[in-house]
Amino acid sequence: MTARIINVMEEHWDYLIILDACRYDYFAALWKNYFDGELEKRVSLASGTLKWCLESFKRYYPDVIYISGNPYINSKVKIKGFNARRHFYKVIDVWDFGWNEELGTVSPENVNKTALSLVRKFPQKRFIIHYLQPHALYISREFKTIGFPNPSPKYGQVLTGIQAYRVKEHLEALVNLFGNLLVKAKIIKHLWELREWLGLPPVSPMDAVRRKYGVNGLRKAYRENLRIVLEHVAKLCDELLRHKPSVRIVITSWRTIWENGKYSHGIDEPYTLEVPWLKVKTIKRMVFDEDIQLSNLFR
Q1: Torsion angle, CA of 195/198/201/202, rounded to 10 degrees?
Q2: What dihedral angle (degrees, nearest 10) is formed by the CA atoms of 24, 30, 36, 37?
Q3: Which among 94, 116, 187, 204 is most buried, taking Cβ atoms within 10 Å?
Q4: Is residue 142, in this structure, part of any structural domain at all?
Q5: Summary count for the chain: helices (H), strands (E)
Q6: Helix (H) or strand (E) holding 150
Q7: Which residues pair with 144 in a beta bridge?
Q8: How many domains does the chain have?
C-alpha cells in the first residue's frame, strides 16, 4: 500500500509534535517503547526545511502557536521567502532563548518546559511543538563532537555548519565547485570524499561523527538522539493527556536523512520523504528525571 502525502494543516490535531529529520524506519523500531497509538507511514511535502514550510503553511492560522526549536521557523526575520510571523498567532523562539551553547543545539528539556508553560497560558490554542532532535548535533554522552554555533537568522547564520571547523570562505567555495564537477563527471560519488582526500575538516556535526565513529557509529548516534527526544516527548504527552485526556496528539516529521553514502539533509530521493504519523493514545513507559518537575507547570 502506497503511503499518502501529508499536509499537516489539513489534518486533525490539537498538538502536533515535529521531530526534526526523523526517519520513519528508526521511529517505527522505537515508538512502541513509549506510546500506544496508531502509526502510519506518510510522505512529506518536502525534504528541506524551507520548502516544507512554504508548502505546508499557505495561510494565517490564528488558532496555532508554533514553539520552534529550529531557527528557520522564527519570529524575527523572513528566511528565503518564509516569514513565520505571518502564519501563526505566535512563534516562540526556543532556538534563541533555549539554545545550549555547551551542546551546540537546543535541548529537548527546554522545548518541554516552554511548551507546558504556553499550554497553560493559552488553553484554547492549538500548538505545533518542534524539537530539533533527532537532527544533529548528537547529544548522547557516547558521541561527542563540536556543535553548531549560536544561530543568528538576521545575519543568515542558521544551521549552516560547524563554524570552528571551517576553512576560509573562498577555499570552501572552490572545494564545493570542484567537488560538484567531480560528482557530475562520476569521478567521485559524494562531495565529502573530496574533503577527506584533501585533508579538510568536516563542516557538519553529522559528518564529524561519521569520521570519528564510522557509519555504524553515526547510525547509533542518530538512534540515541531519537531515543532521547522520544523520552522527552513522552513526558510532554503524559502531562498533556493528564491535563486533558481527550486531546488529539500527533507525532510526525517533515524530512529524513542520509543513507547510500549521502550524509546531508534535503536530499531529493524517495526514502528521504518517508515520515511517521503517530496518533498518540496513551503513554506506555515513562522515565522521569528527578530534576525535571514538569507537572508543576500546570499548577
Answers
A1: 10
A2: 0
A3: 94
A4: yes
A5: 7, 9
A6: none
A7: none
A8: 1
pTM of the full predicted structure? 0.89
Q: Which three cell numbers stand for residue 172?
A: 570552501
Tens of each residue's pLDDT in the chain, 299 residues:
567 888 999 999 999 999 999 999 999 999 999 999 999 999 988 877 888 999 999 999 999 999 999 999 999 999 989 999 999 999 999 999 999 988 889 999 999 999 999 999 999 999 999 999 999 899 998 988 888 888 888 777 788 777 555 555 667 778 778 878 888 888 877 777 777 888 888 878 888 898 899 989 999 999 999 999 999 999 999 999 998 999 999 999 977 666 655 665 555 565 668 899 999 999 986 555 544 444 444 44
> Nearest to residue 221, comparing CAs of 294, 280, 140?
140
d(CA 156, CA 53): 17
Q: Where are the beta strands (DSSP E) in the chain?
A: 15-20, 35-43, 61-68, 88-93, 99-100, 105-106, 126-134, 249-252, 274-283
Q: Is the residue at 66 inside a domain? A: yes
Amino acid at 20: D
Phi-psi region of 61 (alpha: psi -120 to 50; beta: other; left: phi over 0): beta
- C-alpha torsion sign, points 77, 78, 80, 82: positive
> What are the cell numbers at 83?
516569514
CATH number of the structural domain spanning residue 222: 3.40.720
Q: Is 207 helix (H, G, I), strand (E, B) or coil?
A: helix
SS3 133: strand
Rounded CA separation 234/278 (Å): 12
Contact 126, 63 (CB under 8 A): yes
Domain encompassing residue 108 = 8-158+215-298
